[in-house]
Amino acid sequence: MKIVLDIPDDQFSFVMKLVRNLTFLKATPLPAGASNEKALFLAEFGESIDELNDVLAGKTQAADAYSLLDEL
Q: What is the C-alpha separation between 72 and 63, in angstroms, rounded?
């Protein structure tokens, strides 16, 4: 699950230290001024890249295009 937080600039450092100390969370700062739609796109795109890297490394198996179309 993903969430987007709006953090004041003066508190950003503190929040990132806090998040990095929680080992079950993964935090990726977004560029300043990024909209919620852009943030969602970047998060989903990053997740897609991670999945592709897992397939290329042989950790998971890719679904074929016909299976994906059947889900639609």
A: 14
Q: Please report the DSSP string for the chain in residue order.
A: --------GGGHHHHHHHHHH-TT----PPPTT--HHHHHHHHHHHHHHHHHHHHHTTSS-PPPHHHHHHH-
User: Which contacts (CB < 8 Å, 24+ apart) does range 26-30 have?
Assistant: 30/4
- pLDDT tens per residue, range 13-55: 898 898 888 888 887 776 676 677 777 787 788 888 888 999 9
Could you give the CA distance from residue 14 to residue 33 in angstroms, rounded to a whole number? 20
Give residue 14's identity as a one-letter amino acid code: F
